[in-house]
Amino acid sequence: DIQMTQSPSSLSASVGDRVTITCRASQGISNYLAWFQQKPGQVPKLLIYAASTLQSGVPSRFSGSGSGTEFTLTISSLQPEDVATYYCQKYNSSPRTFGQGTKVEIK
Amino acid sequence: QVQLEESGGGVVQPERSLRLSCAASGFTFSDYAIHWVRQAPGRGLEWVAVISYDGSKSSYADSVKGRFIVSRDNSMTTVYLQMNSLRLEDTAVYYCARGSSTVTKKQPFQHWGQGTLVSVSS
């Protein structure tokens, strides 16, 4: 099975900072990569799919890039409401493995 | 609008069984695969299982293979997760999520239920 590895596992940044999270697949998955945001006590929310397509209603400060085995999620200007854990997930085939998550906090 | 609602969670002893339900509405249920995802307390998301739109195919995570069975009743727009031989490490919130359709393959999880908590404890 394909493994998904996220880095870092946590980060702390200031409001307004640019934040980048990386997700690596152990084998190529084309662009079948989604990013989710999960705030404490809430259901995961789809942010980006097809590696770089912003889900409707998601702020434009979020962006995604990559293809094959290397992907990134970028928050261009971190806001207090972005405090959450972010997960990548492959969806080209089952098992639809998730990355282990990246916890984003405000410094 | 698309709605998914899990039920059936609770406290259960190790080695016992429990059946979860995922009731769906707001879309053509029989056109979509449905997945189960779980999240242990303080841990990340773990994909558990999927059942195809017509129930003819299913797939499981290695951690539950041979113990969990996913099924569906399209007339009741409901998916079930039969969990047998439960272990302490199965304690988690279990979510159902809408997967790919018969028309659009390989769709991400846009719609999730609110989750139901399963606690395995002696």
Instruction: Please tell me how large the radius of gyration of chain B is.
Output: 14 Å
Residue-averaged pLDDT of chain B, rounded? 97
| Strand line-up of the largest beta sheet of chain B | 2-10-9-4-5-6
- Summarize the amount of helix of chain A as a percent range: under 10%
**Biggest contact:** A-B, 24 and 20 residues
How many beta strands in the DSSP annotation of chain A? 10
Tally of contiguous helical segments of chain A? 0
Number of helices of chain B: 0
The CA-CA distance between the termini of chain B, in Å, is: 40 Å
DSSP strand content of chain A: over 45%
Largest sheet of chain B: 6 strands, mixed
**What is the H/E string of chain B?**
EEEEEEEEEE
Cα shape of chain A: globular
Structural category of chain B is mainly beta
Unreliable residue runs of chain A: none
Please explain how this structure is put together:
The complex is a heterodimer of chains A (107) and B (122). Chain A has a six-stranded mixed sheet, with no helix packed on it. A four-stranded antiparallel sheet of chain A has the order 1-3-8-7, with no helix packed on it. Chain A is globular. In chain A, a hairpin with a 2-residue loop joins strand 7 and strand 8 (70-75). Chain A has strands spanning 4-7, 10-13, 19-25, 33-38, 45-49, 53-54, 62-67, 70-75, 84-90, 102-106. The model of chain A has no long low-confidence stretch (mean pLDDT 97). Chain A is mostly beta strands and 107 residues long. Chain A is built from no helices and ten strands. Chain B is an all-beta fold and 122 residues long. In chain B, the strands form two sheets. A six-stranded mixed sheet of chain B has the order 2-10-9-4-5-6, with no helix packed on it. A four-stranded antiparallel sheet of chain B has the order 1-3-8-7, with no helix packed on it. The N and C termini of chain B lie far apart (40 Å). The mean pLDDT of chain B is 97. Chains A and B meet through strand 4 and strand 9 of A and strand 5 of B.
